[in-house]
Amino acid sequence: MKKASTFLLGAVVGITLTAGTTIGAANYLKATPKKVSIVVGSNQNSVEAMNVQNKLYVPVRDAGDSFGYSVSGVTSTTVTFAEGKTATTNSVGTGTTDKNTTTPSKTEGEYVEGLHDKYGTNGKLDAEKVKAAIAAGEISVNAQDKGTGNSLLHYVVLENNFAVYSVIKVNALNVNLQNGELQTPLILSVIHENGFYEGELTNYYKSDATIKDNSGKQAIDYSKPNSSTYINLKFYMM
Question: What radius of gyration, in Å, describes the C-alpha atoms of the chain?
Answer without folding.
Answer: 18
